[in-house]
Fold this protein.
Amino acid sequence: MQPGLYADDSITRRINRENVLLLGGGRALLMQLAHPKVAAGVDEHSDFRSHPIRRLRRTILMTMAIVFGDRDTALGAARTVNQVHARVRGHDYRALDPDLLLWVHATLMDTALVTYETFVKPLLPREREDFYQEFKLVGELLGVPKDRFPVTLRDFDSYLEAMIAGGPVRVDERARELAKLVLRPRLRLLPGPAMIPFDVVTAGLLPPTLREQYGLPWGAGRQRAFKLAVRTLPRLIALTPPVLRVWPLPGHNVKVDKRLVAR
């Protein structure tokens, strides 16, 4: 079996194989859309308004292909995404802008850490740093120049805080419109209220500043529901056998048709 870019016992694979990380998908999307230029690119060059969940699906497939695929699968998926991004440009943005690529990468990296530590278990400081350093490879494959990455996780945290507090990341009207499609997508087999738990978890995981800018409800009832999830899910996950809890199982590489990553 051809080896992948990451060792099977790497912290990157250990974290990303947890199925519960899917609960962070809404957070990652809303953080990305909070950058006006990212929101513009998504809105003007994709089918996001009609199929909002497809972007989340493509992101998951891309990440799984790079992290868990063999070398050819990983590099092929990254190459396909880069070719798609090369065609995305607008009035004052282009998808291959290193600053935009770094922000999107940052949302994925930070969301993985936040979701894992919220619903699985806390990590040691060394593990958090190792994950940050290892995950840079994903960003490099998708076009982020090496010298654009904050050097350490502490530097990264400062970057994230600066981007949200006083940088270009600020939720505008377009982002709020798109966020509604993320939180309450039109799904034929599920009524709108069925998405309320996902709505609550997404709001709870978001940085408070962005939650407020999106205008997401965060009253006492929702806060209690989120705290209940934070208390109970880690206990359930700890008791769940690996065959149900993680994917892929350790020792298994992922095969992903790279065409699906671009659709």
In short: The chain has a mean pLDDT of 92. The chain has one domain: 11-238. Residues 98-119 form the longest helix (22 residues). Residues 11-238 form one domain.
